[in-house]
Amino acid sequence: MKTKHTRTSRFVLSAFCLSASLLPLPSYGADTGTVKGKIIDKSDGEGVYGASVNIAGTTIGTATDMNGNFTLQNVPAKSQKISISIVGYAATSQVINVSSDKTTEVNLQLGQTTIMASEVVVGASLYKQDRLDVPVTVNVVSQERIRQQPNPTLDQVIEDVPGVLVNRAGGQTTSTVSIRGSNSYQGGAIGTRVQGFYDGFPLNTPETGEVVWSSVNMNASDKVEILKGAAANLYGSGAMGGVMNASGRLPEKFEVKAGFNGGFYDAPPSSDKGTYRVGNTPWLRNTYVGIGNKSAPWNYNLLYTNSHDDGYKENSKTELNDVKLKARYDINAKQYLQLSSFFNESKGGYAYTWPYDFNVLTLKFTPHPEYPFDEVTVNTTSPGGVTNTPKSVYIDDTIKRKNALSGLNYVNLLSDNLSLDSRIYHTYNFTRINYNSSSSDQKYATGVTRTPGEFNETNSNRYGSGVKFDWRAANQHRLLFGLDGNITYMQSTQYTADVPVKNALTSIQEKNAAAFVQDEWKLGNKLTALLSLRYDWSGINKDAVSYVDYVNPTGYTIPTATYTYGTTKTGVPISNPSVDALNPRIALNYKAADDLSFRASWGKSFRAPTLAERFVRDAGILKGIPNPALDKETQTAYELGMFKVLSEKVSFDIAGYVNNYDNLIESITSSGTPVVVNAPFPPFAPFTFTPSYFKYVNLTRARIWGIETSLNYKPTSEWALNASYSYMNAKNLNYVKGINTMLDNNPDPTWLPMRPDHTASASATWKATSKLSLNVNGRYVSKYKAVNYYTNTAGTNYPGNFVVFNSGVKYHVAEKAELSILCRNIANVQYEEVEWFRAPGRSFVAGVDFTF
Questions:
Q1: Are 803 and 703 contained in the same domain?
Q2: Could you tell me whether strands 194-198 and 201-202 are parallel, antiparallel, or unpaired per DSSP bridges?
Q3: pTM of the full predicted structure?
Q4: 34, 474, 705, 758 from 60: Cα distances, Å
Q5: What is the pLDDT of residues 748-787, one digit of tens each?
Q6: Can you say how many angstroms the Cα of residue 313 is from the centroid of all Cα atoms in its chain?
Q7: Does some domain include residue 504?
């Protein structure tokens, strides 16, 4: 395994060096000059900070400093068009003459417009567009929003975006993100329909589709863009629900950054009857240090972060080390190389649900939510009597993860109308769960026995490349076309086509290839159409699967309450070792006025089954059976939307959508063949035991429709108010009682699990002075109508039904120092985002950040 990882590093390094050696050397010299100037606000004459300044038709660009000043070096000596843009101001440009070896000065004024009218997004088109010109729904989390809290993680900065739902079990345990109800919550985040990217490179693990959202540290990020539904058509399999792309930051000048924050979890309310928090205050801290510079032709940013969390619940302690490096090398004014890379390693306890009693005969769980933060003794009733599972069985379970990315972009503006963007990348993902650190067997409450040193591990190496061309073929047509492909080498103890051998890794391979084309067609001054078509192919190198038949138990042992199974099925043909799909999209944008646009879209997308969905065997409580007939799932998405700037202070967005799923891949829990067991001694009489198992299947049809609204209001320059509300209706259109015995017990068994119908969020930011700002934000999630496993007809102990508020204060002590204080969950609300996993209560964090 180490050898392969070394080969990976050499591959990426060699590719970087080869690319650099084949490209022309910088052409900087006597035929270039410098452009300097200042961008000021027309209304008050003050410098505008953070404005984007670019030389049209080149890759030369920068941003203004705190006083509105900027400098552009190595600008080709000729007549050039300089363009300036920033959110909240009308974009402007001016033609200037640049002389060789001389400095040209230019000062420009910007007039304020509206809150979001000039916001620039990449979005569904895969290139930059004005917010008012985008024909699909795109949400942007700005750098200012990211920096409102100390040590932000990706899940925290997107949790209040309309239509986005975050489900977290705590610590290093599974967390998922759903867009418009695209995902359920399942162990390992198997089958995620949201694609995560970092600078356009994939974050999802190739074997499950999981992104450990809470471990994606945002200290080195500029912004996050969220695309929804058909908007993500060009991103291929895995992006059926949507796309989240975090952009790494590059500084505009030399800087050294450092920061520290620390805090603690407040005491739980008196309803907590556990012992973990008695006399124990869990602490959390974060430290980061970084360096960056922009000095032609180089621009780079290097940041190291260490985070430690004692854990708000027992066995949820975590430790994270993260290194991010982003670097850009300008070959000349027309082309550049850009490296995006990171490595992070996290480790911690594997958190479990709150305690419960378990009856083996009836498969009934009786929860104890009065111990929400404890791993305590579990009582199990079986034919052999009542047994206790000691705490030690659970609190020695740990999980370790490693994630790495090395991605290289080469961009060349081949002409005024044609550009090339090519890339190569490698990702490495490693997850290992250690179950038993003792020297003897450990038996869990559900009957599962873990031997000393037993573990589950998966590691994968993914190599990918892609190329796209952006061609302005005519005034009315802008064409985008390209190719993508990757290959994954995976080793796993359970995601394998063969019957797993305990603690033994087995190899499997997956390949993906795609081609796409898009035309942005200007049908008139106000109407634009975005037409696209993408073809995807995905396949594995196995055509048969072997597995143990968990449906038909052949024996039952008393009093140990364990059962055995029949023969192993070997060489069962896989019906769909490869799948493909051709997915079109049509999107329209009608810009009725400078402050009003309407949008409509229709599109198809697909998702290939992940390796985990094909071959998962072990879910702790239940055993899994691979499904050799598992097929791709498809979606047809419709959307109508409107974006309106009501005044210079108010903007409003509304969208309605319908997502129709065919062959939706979901996990079902079913009952096996009943077994009559004759008890050999009193007081136990003969009884019938019915085993349960799970597997992934294609549901025939499902439909999710909903409405999203958001309102932005800026009454004065000191105040910014935001509010959003979403309604969602998620139904299994072909529900049949008895297929999934767990879901049958939900209050509404036709409702797709883990998808609340109402969500809302609100935020208020007040800049009290030039140095002091305060923020309050909150979110609401309605009670879930259906869950996956711990079901009951009354919906007792179901997640959701909570309102949580957070508050933060930031104070600029000096130009280079900033203090912050944050209180999460102000009211210490006790709630769950996942079945039987209590979310964190109130916590306090204080920090200081320096920039030199």
A1: yes
A2: antiparallel
A3: 0.86
A4: 11, 24, 44, 46
A5: 999 999 999 999 999 999 999 989 999 999 999 999 999 9
A6: 24
A7: yes
